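Incident review: delayed structure delivery

Summary: a single-chain prediction request sat in the queue longer than the usual turnaround. Root cause was a stuck worker, restarted by the on-call engineer. No data loss occurred. The affected request and its eventual output are reproduced below so the record is complete for anyone auditing the incident later.

Affected input:
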Amino acid sequence: MAPLGRGKYNQFSSKPYRNAAVLLPIYNINSYPHIILTLRSEYDGVHSAQVSFPGGKFDEHETEAWEVALREMEEETGVNRNFIEILGSLSPLYIPASNMMVQPIIGWIDQEIQFKPDPREVQRIMKIPIEDLFESERLLANDFFKLNNMFVNVPYLKLDSERVWGATAMIISELRAILGRPIKDINS
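Output delivered after worker restart:
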């Protein structure tokens, strides 16, 4: 799910990157697992109006990625961090556009919760059945997105009528691989 030629855009900035974390929440709805994504609000920044996992930068006092992921989940979605069990983490991912090294953390929510999204950060909450991640028709042909003041051909997933691309799509791709059902094997 990386953009074609990402390697040449993947060099680290000359300035030190910032650490960040996101939560990949898996929510049990009627005994069926869903992932939670957010559609970010529009703002003056590189990730405006994009689909993402709840997350953000480390605060000065934070030392653990899971702390950041839980705090950001609570701030962005209104879900109490005490309702989330940390299951583990995925591979860290460098995001050139924001010069951040992001650590994805997987969390499990096994009870009924109320979402109260912060309108400054989140337009809406998306609840995606995990099974949808394996439907080959959701992996769409590349489209052009503006990256580093250039239009780049980027693969994306179509989930809940939204384009999911970049770091979020790469994290979902790793989750699919861990679950053992990459898209290429669906029709075989």
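Verification: The longest strand covers residues 18-29.
Action items: add queue-age alerting; document worker restart procedure.
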